[in-house]
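Sample intake sheet
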Amino acid sequence: MFNLTINTMSRKASEVSNILLIVAFSITIAFVTLLPKAAFAQETLRLSIQPIQSEQRTREIFQPMADYIEHLTGRKVELVTYPNFLSFWTDTQKGDKYDIVFDAAHFIDYRNKNHDFTTFAKQPGSVSISLIVSEDALVFEPEELIGKKISTLGPPSVAAVNIDEMYNNPVRQPTIVEANNSQGVIKMLRDGNVDAGMIPTPLVSGIMANEGGISVVTTTEPIPSMGMSVSPNVTADIREKLVKGLLEADKTPEGKKMLSETKLNPFEKTSNKDFFGYAKLLDDFLNIQVVVND
């Protein structure tokens, strides 16, 4: 009887031990499975900039912003650049290719609605795009450029989608010649390779005040200036550091240095509601015929 009791107790102890081993093993597997995501969340932040300039020039201009965000957050920051707007748009639609992004109103609104990003800071005021021609071209209305070549940043940049709105009849279109940057647009126009160009209005003012040689055909309705947004995967403490650091950048030596080197104005507070409705600019951008300029 005594031996039977001992055997029974040993058997139960062995069963309990096995159960504990299984539970411990399961917890370990779960931890190992989740570890890469958790570890990644504590490592690199990916900062993306819309491709107004070439990739090399974008890195040169915005590396000080990446450095400043590293200073604010204590996290390594990788600057994510793109060769053109189509590749940028592809990643924007996926929603998980970057953690922080600085770009235009139509992308901001799309991302906020579809991928739950939060926009917290923007450059002051608004921005418009101007359709320009050579001063001797005698073009007074956009319709006069149907069937002609217009140079712009590629779709779906703000300039390209505004052209799509101007020319909404699919059989009465200009041919869009894609440039790598606004300087490329101006060069193509001056060289006579295109009949018109679309560039940000502030650049037009600068050209007219200096070398001149262009005329404005029309200017688009203004939209909010570029803004800074964060992914829902960015933790609350990192968000707080970003918001405080960017909105108060003009009050610290490090922030002033970043603003000076990137040639940005001090950021102003904003929210998702300031960008409501601008995603509609993306609806039909693929209807534009694109010629890649070599």
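Comment: Residues 2-41 form the longest helix (40 residues). The radius of gyration is 27 Å.
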